Amino acid sequence: MFYYLTIALQGFCIYHLIKNRSQYYWIFIIIFIPVIGSIIYLVTQVYNKRDASIIKENLTSVLIPTKKVKDLEKKLQFAETFQNRLDLADAFFEMKDYKNAITHYEVALKDETQNKYFILENLIASYYGLEDYNKTITYAEALKKYPEFNKSKSEFIYGLALDKTEQSAAAEKHLKAIDQRYSNYSERLILAKFYIERDNIEAAKEILNEITIESQHMTKPNKRKYSKTINEVEKLLKSI
Q1: CA–CA separation, 55 and 11 (whole Å)
Q2: Residue 149 DSSP label
Q3: Which residues of the chain have pLDDT under 70?
Q4: CA distance 40 to 55
Q5: Which helix (H) or strand (E) is 134 found in, with range?
Q6: Please, are residues 6 and 35 in contact by the beta-carbon 8 Å criterion?
Q7: H or E stretch covering 230
Q8: Which of 73, 83, 95, 174 could form a disulfide bond with 159, CB atoms 3.0-4.6 angstroms apart?
Q9: What is this structure's pTM?
Q10: Alpha helices (H) in 33-94, listed in sequence order
Q11: 132-177 residue pLDDT tens
Q12: Residue 4 CB: number of other CB atoms within 10 A?
């Protein structure tokens, strides 16, 4: 039991380290001095009174990954309310368990008294994650009536699904909507690749060059955050 607790503690510390971009020498301390190194990391890099409950919750999640879902399932069994079902669907969605997420989102969608926008958003992402592009398109078209849909990530996923179903002309219109300066770097990289696949090299270069220029004005945290995308942009520019 002690061995598994040690592994869980190390796992949480490394997860926290990567998520918060702490100094990477901590990885060696945590791995080579398992218990003491992890405790030192918690005390010096994580712990304060305000964080105590968060640490406890996250450690529990490491030890029992499905605990949150099980607790929410019990809560829904006790009181079958719209919010309880939505919370459970969201928990499945966060775990990328799209099939179970869809099951509960679609039940929640039947409640005509509730705002459906966020449910439809996650249904679109869930069906796309399962590579069910026709269902993705169906729910995206239900979402189009909302003004928030324009230039949103949901519209971008809609464009991707249209492309997957060989509707490239329609796809381009919706993929282009995400092309906004100083944002959406990953999506704009995908758009550039879309153009390359269709031999529209000039359009692709324009997007890639814009991202390169914008990256030079990023803050250090954003440079770290988007470093993988920026590196891929630079490689792609050299290859075309």
Answers
A1: 13
A2: G
A3: 1-6, 9, 17, 19-25, 28, 32, 34, 37, 42-65
A4: 14
A5: helix 133-143
A6: yes
A7: helix 227-239
A8: 174
A9: 0.72
A10: 34-41, 52-63, 67-78, 82-94
A11: 999 999 999 999 999 999 999 999 999 999 999 999 999 999 999 9
A12: 9
